Amino acid sequence: MTIETGRPWKNWGRSESSTPAFVSRPTSVDEVIETVRFARERGLTVRPVGASHSFTGIAATDGVQIDVSAIDGLIAVDGNMVTLGAGTHLHQLPELLAPYGLALQNMGDINVQTLAGATSTGTHGTGSAFGGLATQIRAVTLVTAAGELLHVSRTENAELLPAAVLGLGALGILVAMQIECVQAFVLHAVERPESAATVLAEWEQRIAEHDHFEFYSWPHAELVSTKTNTRMPADTPRKPLGPVQEWFDNRVMANTVFGASLEMLRVVPAMIPPMNRLSVKLEANREFSDYSWDVFSTVRTTRFREMEYALPVELVPAALTAIHDLIAAKGWRISFPIEVRASAADDLWLSTGHGRATGYIAAHRFWKDDPTEYFREIEAIMRHHEGRPHWGKMHGRTADDLRPAYPRFDDFLAVRDRLDPDRLFANPYLSRVLGA
Ligand SMILES: Cc1cc2nc3c(=O)[nH]c(=O)nc-3n(C[C@H](O)[C@H](O)[C@H](O)COP(=O)(O)OP(=O)(O)OC[C@H]3O[C@@H](n4cnc5c(N)ncnc54)[C@H](O)[C@@H]3O)c2cc1C
Predict the structure, then answer these.
(1) Which residues form ligand 1's pocket by a CB distance below 6 Å?
(2) Are strands 212-217 and 182-183 parallel, antiparallel or unpaired?
(3) Ligand 1 center to residue 246 CA distance, Å?
(4) Which of 104, 113, 144 is the best mutation target for the ligand 1 pocket, counting ligand atoms within 8 Å of the beta carbon and taking the most?
(5) Computed from CA positions of residues 113, 116, 122, 126, in that sequence, does the dihedral angle turn out positive or negative?
(6) Are 296 and 91 a contacting pair, CB within 8 Å?
(7) CA–CA distance, 226 with 322 (Å, rounded to integer)
């Protein structure tokens, strides 16, 4: 087994860094168990890390960092139930699932996360009939703090399932996960600039009428960029973007040109409002259809920082309006759009969608800009609108003020006490949001 002296670690958004004492890259479950023992013997904590795409310090550690990305690939397929190594990256799935004609039910904006990392923070896409990724997990296998294997499913340790599938990496090291897939499908995508006032007025109707509706709300602009994706059978003839258009829209415009313009706008912030008004018009105005995984996920090379809040779906228009009023009142110039999505209610204990149909509002800042004041003021608006922060995105909440937002919060803490009484998997972020 490889356990090496740790090197400095940084997350994708460059908002967090740490230097683990050791890094372990197990290639088998036995090596995961050995890593837990190694840490215990030295009195060190252990943190699993996925693709480091969380903006919070949820994966940071100065103890032993364990990277399970070599524990990946297919373990078993039974109908549409697929068991995978927990370190499988989402971008591996189309190829792994192709022989079975299966796909993930829904996906977020990118596909570089690991299955364990994505589900552990409540990663979600959009669609009012669909929950986040963790709602599709039917069973998991964990290595516990005691160095034992724990199977959790509807038939084994079933009482732990609503905690274990979305556990912030606080309950153990996931090594295998069974996910309920769906028959592969094609998505028909329509992307348009539309009137902000119309989209806000029709918000609940749009998310009810369309499988996957979302929009980007640009500060200082009267238009928003909408994305409306409709599910079609797998044998629907596809009309994908041509390679040149795909490259130009998704790589050049959405990343290279956007990134360069953000650098320029830092020097001349007065140009931000006219640039945003231009961007929303130049942003994708297109219609195409392709395999679901190619439509759901995009490539992000322009680094940013993000805060995302989940709120009761009907409060989205009021909360978004309050954010735009705040930007105007403060005289801020904000170059990044605000992303607005929806999901179904679910029953996972720490899911941001727990018990309520949910709308999501995500604010972004270019990684070189200081987001502190912007995020702090938006967080105040979100609190006022019953918001719950995404566990993997920047926020300032603590265990005491998160408890009232989650009816099963103390049940989750009881499971943590049972599975990790000595806090082998602790780090400062978990101490802040769950308590010591
Ligand atoms: C560009 C970008 C786009 C994004 N788009 C979306 C989006 O559309 N929707 C959305 O909801 N989120 C989105 N996110 C957030 C992202 O999906 C989450 O932060 C996710 O957790 C990252 O997965 P990861 O594999 O990088 O995990 P990491 O960030 O490395 O880890 C996340 C958590 O998972 C735990 N973990 C990792 N592996 C294991 C394991 N084997 N066992 C137990 N715990 C484990 C870690 O300890 C940590 O607590 C985005 C982030 C970025 C940077």
Answers:
(1) 12-13, 47-54, 58-59, 68, 86, 108-110, 113-114, 116-118, 120-121, 123-124, 168-169, 173-174, 300, 390, 392
(2) unpaired
(3) 26
(4) 113
(5) positive
(6) no
(7) 20
Q: 182-232 pLDDT, tens per residue?
A: 999 999 999 999 999 999 999 999 999 999 999 999 999 999 999 999 999
pTM score, two decimals? Answer: 0.95
pLDDT for 43-78, tens place per residue? 999 999 999 999 999 999 999 999 999 999 999 999
Quote the CA–CA distance of 427 and 413 in Å, as a whole number.
Answer: 15
Q: Which residues of 202-237 are buried (b: 16+ CB within 10 A; e: fewer)?
A: bbbebbeebbbbbbbbbbbbebbbbbbbbbbeeeee
The per-residue pLDDT for range 78-105, each reduced to its tens digit, is 999 999 999 999 999 999 999 999 999 9
Best mutation site among 120, 133, 212 for ligand 1 pocket (most ligand atoms within 8 Å of CB): 120
Rounded average pLDDT over 349-369? 96
Closest by alpha carbon to 306, among 369, 212, 226, 383?
369
* Average pLDDT score, the chain: 94
301 contacts 339 by C-beta, under 8 angstroms: no
* pLDDT at 276 (0 to 100): 78
Closest ligand 1 atom to Cα of 360: 11
> Which of 28, 47, 54, 427 has most ligand 1 atoms within 8 Å of CB, for mutation?
54
Q: Do residues 343 and 312 lie in contact, with contact meaning Cβ atoms separated by under 8 Å?
A: no
Q: Which residues of 326-349 are buried (b: 16+ CB within 10 A; e: fewer)?
A: bbeeeeebbbbbbbbbbbbbbebb
